[in-house]
């Protein structure tokens, strides 16, 4: 590990910097990445954001989004950037498996690796760590890194503020989760003062659906929703044929699990979707129920206590039955 002063000395002169985040980036991942990018370009660094995969169209309006390189589309350029980098900032993930085949490229790089994240159980690949599981979003930690670590709060301009507000808004469930504190609201107020247009950001992210996405949501709720009252659990499962029928794009299934969780009395909700290469699970819970424990123990995943994800190479029907079979183990917690 290196200390903060060593990192600050390195950043005191122009550096080759790569910023990356987890595959299929969400609002916090891209908001954090482009927020940090928009800060670093003001300092004269040569900086690139390299995303392991594509990401939702409703995030592609973020300031300087055209500068993002997608690894799966430009692998050779991405590999060269990683190999030549002096610093690699790893945002919103703490295990290199989360960036797919890019992980080994990052591991081999001689660059100093900086992890900024709020997820449990870091892998330990990093050389410098700004990590806090109590932060509601990585974008919150980016703000803290710029303002309190690097003492550069005056460089939080409109572009930086817009990106960081987006990350905080999306990962906090529009400021409704338990880890939204008065301190976070003060950060958000500062971002608005710096130029973030809160109403416009919300509109760009949440009021920007395709016709297919809305029809798919209706289909999920009317045809695919199962309520298991004996376990205070709700489940939605969809096949790859369903995804194809409604022409669902990257990111358009995000948030559907929350509709299941919003049912009165439900304590655990699951959205299980069949992709071309595997089955993905998104779990959400309320209170102290450990959704992340189920994902880690049974579905090669993890996350936060109330928001977690996993995956399986089994058939969709097998994964759904496995999920059902796990519920008796947690019945007492689910019925509390």
From TrEMBL:
InterPro entries: DDH_dom, DHH_sf, DHHA1_dom, Oligoribo/pAp-PDE_c-di-AMP_PDE
Top-rank taxon, per record: Bacteria
Organism field: Pedobacter segetis
Protein name, per record: Bifunctional oligoribonuclease/PAP phosphatase NrnA
Residue ranges of domain DHHA1 in the record: 245-326
Start and end residues of each DDH domain: 16-168
Pfam families on file: DHH (PF01368), DHHA1 (PF02272)
């Amino acid at each position: 590990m290196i200390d903060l002063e060593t990192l600050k000395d390195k950043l005191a002169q122009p550096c080759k910097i790569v910023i990356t985040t987890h595959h299929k980036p969400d609002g916090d991942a891209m908001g954090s990445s482009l927020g940090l990018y928009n800060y670093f370009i003001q300092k004269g660094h040569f900086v690139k954001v390299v995303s392991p995969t594509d990401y939702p169209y409703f995030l592609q309006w973020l300031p300087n989004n055209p500068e993002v390189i997608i690894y799966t589309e430009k692998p050779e350029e991405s590999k060269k950037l990683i190999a030549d980098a002096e610093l690699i900032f790893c945002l919103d993930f703490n295990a290199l498996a989360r960036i797919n085949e890019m992980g080994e490229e990052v591991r081999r790089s001689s660059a100093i690796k900086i992890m900024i994240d709020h997820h449990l159980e870091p892998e330990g690949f990093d050389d410098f760590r700004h990590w806090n599981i109590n932060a509601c979003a990585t974008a919150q930690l980016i703000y803290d890194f710029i303002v309190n670590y690097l003492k550069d709060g005056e460089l939080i301009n409109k572009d930086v503020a817009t990106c960081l507000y987006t990350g905080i808004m999306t990962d906090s469930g529009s400021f409704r989760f338990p880890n939204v504190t008065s301190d976070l609201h003060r950060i958000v107020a500062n971002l608005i003062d710096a130029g973030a247009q809160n109403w416009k950001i919300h509109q760009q992210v949440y009021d920007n659906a395709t016709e297919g996405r809305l029809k798919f949501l209706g289909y999920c709720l009317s045809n695919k929703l199962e309520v298991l009252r004996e376990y205070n659990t709700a489940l939605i499962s969809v096949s790859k044929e369903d995804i194809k029928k409604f022409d669902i794009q990257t990111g358009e299934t995000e948030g559907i699990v929350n509709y299941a969780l919003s049912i009165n009395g439900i304590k655990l909700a699951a959205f299980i979707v069949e992709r071309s290469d595997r089955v993905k699970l998104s779990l959400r819970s309320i209170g102290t129920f450990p959704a992340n424990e189920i994902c880690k123990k049974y579905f090669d995943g993890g996350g936060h206590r109330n928001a977690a994800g996993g995956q399986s190479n089994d058939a969709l029907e097998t994964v759904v039955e496995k999920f059902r079979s796990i519920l008796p183990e947690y019945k007492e917690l689910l019925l509390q």
